[in-house]
Amino acid sequence: MTPRAVEVLKSVALIAAEDTRHSRPLLNHYAVTTAMTAFHEHNERQMMDKLTVMLQAGESVALISDAGTPLISDPGFPLVRECHRLGIPVSPIPGASAALAALSAAGLPTDRFYFEGFPARTSHARREQFTRLKDEAATLVFYESSHRVADTLVDMALVFGESRTAVMARELTKLHETIRRDSLGVLCDFVAGDNNQRKGEFVILVAGKTAAEEELDPEAIRILRILLEEMPVKKAAALTARITGGKKNRLYRQALEWRE
Prior knowledge:
Blueprint (H helix, E strand, L loop, with lengths): L2 H9 L2 E4 L2 H10 L6 E3 L5 H13 L4 E4 L12 H10 L11 H9 L6 E5 L5 H11 L5 E6 L4 H12 L4 E6 L7 E6 H9 L9 E5 L4 H5 L2 H11 L4 H12 L3 H12 L1
Parallel strand pairs: 1-2, 1-3, 4-5
Antiparallel strand pairs: 5-8, 6-7, 6-8
């Protein structure tokens, strides 16, 4: 929490919270006694009239979500849109954002990224969704729940390829924070083999498709990754070329890109 956020929560007339039970301990911790009302995906349209009437009367309302930044895969869009329509000022109070926090620590390109939010709930729909994205060059950013993270990683490995670099960021900024950067195939095994890694809230980042990966055979990529764990770039590329018949220079450039 930032000092500004605490000050705002204490000064507004009402706090609209995604889950009042979830927010109450946090407000108690900061001695915030402001009245609170529930505002979530099931009642946000019904609550809009009440909140906009207050706002038009000159009162201030703070909108908070259970974690991260409001409206980023969280409720609030219809209310904010309506405020803009009515000429009611909307001001962000910056704080933690899971997507940006994960990007800053992932070691993947951040000059361009594509935020996809939560993947589809069923495997068939997820695979169709990933298929539409598999040739995207920008870093892909997803949120996922503990109930589906293992299955989602499996579907990602199937569509993007087991050798595609990815990052799993779990419980960011919390006690059991985990940030693991590896190939999708290795991440699948990592999560499947440790029940603790299937708990909490997740951001999954998938590297964009590179020109080098387009030209390389998946088996060559797999072998090159294994050899890079044991030997220098030049030697790993040369040996991979001998084993697979691939172009040594292309393999060398790919290995350098991964190392960088």
